[in-house]
């Protein structure tokens, strides 16, 4: 047996099953585009509010640029007003989504707390009944 040769597993493209040398994706344009779409989808799933954050930052910079401009035309003033309104709607949408998650967790805490109080009350009733039984004997 010759030990100088290393065993290299055969690697195939994950999109078109073409034999490749090193990576799971071949060099065809379609396969590379599919890989890019897959990566972008993964990024969007990992951080769904990233687009909203970028939009918010862009709107804030555009608003400050327009506000700092000394002589505004009517078109620029209308653009400034629309951007401020859009930013307000975006912030409201973000706060609504945050409020919905907070409301859900508050209800869970309420249910757990009420359940614990109920169990304690039932235990107290059993303990008191047992004590009364002992006192009668």
Query: What is the average per-residue confidence, as pLDDT, rounded to a whole number?
Result: 80
Strand order of the largest sheet: 1-2
SSE order, as H and E? EEHHH
The separation of the N and C termini measures 92 Å
Strand runs, count: 2
Please indicate the percent range of residues in DSSP E strands (runs of 2 or more): under 5%
> What ranges have pLDDT less than 50 throughout 5 or more consecutive residues?
none
* Oligomer category: single chain
Task: Please describe the biggest sheet, giving its number of strands, its sense, and whether it closes into a barrel.
Answer: 2 strands, antiparallel
Structure characterization notes:
The model has no long low-confidence stretch (mean pLDDT 80). By secondary structure, the protein is mainly alpha-helical. Helix 2 crosses helix 3. The chain is flat, with a radius of gyration of 32 Å. The relative contact order is 0.05. A hairpin with a 6-residue loop joins strand 1 and strand 2. It has a domain of 57 residues. The chain has a two-stranded antiparallel sheet with strand order 1-2. Helices cover 73% and strands 3% of the residues.
Short précis:
It contains three helices and two strands.
Could you give the topology of this structure?
Layout: E1 11-12, E2 19-20, H1 29-46, H2 50-68, H3 74-136
Antiparallel strand pairs: 1-2
Helix pairs in contact: 2-3
Key attributes of the depicted protein:
137 residues, mainly alpha, 3 helices, 3% strand
């Amino acid at each position: 047996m010759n030990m100088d040769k290393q065993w290299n597993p055969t690697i195939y493209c994950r999109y078109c099953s073409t034999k490749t040398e090193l990576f799971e994706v071949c060099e065809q344009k379609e396969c590379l585009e599919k890989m890019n779409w897959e990566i972008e989808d993964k990024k969007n799933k990992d951080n769904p509010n990233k687009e909203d954050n970028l939009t918010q930052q862009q709107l804030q910079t555009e608003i400050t640029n327009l506000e700092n401009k000394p002589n505004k035309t009517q078109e620029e003033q209308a653009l400034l007003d629309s951007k401020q309104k859009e930013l307000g709607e975006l912030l409201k949408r973000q706060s609504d989504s945050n409020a919905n998650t907070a409301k859900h967790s508050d209800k869970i805490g309420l249910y757990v707390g009420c359940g614990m109080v109920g169990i304690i009350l039932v235990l107290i009733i059993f303990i008191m009944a047992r004590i009364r039984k002992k006192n009668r004997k």
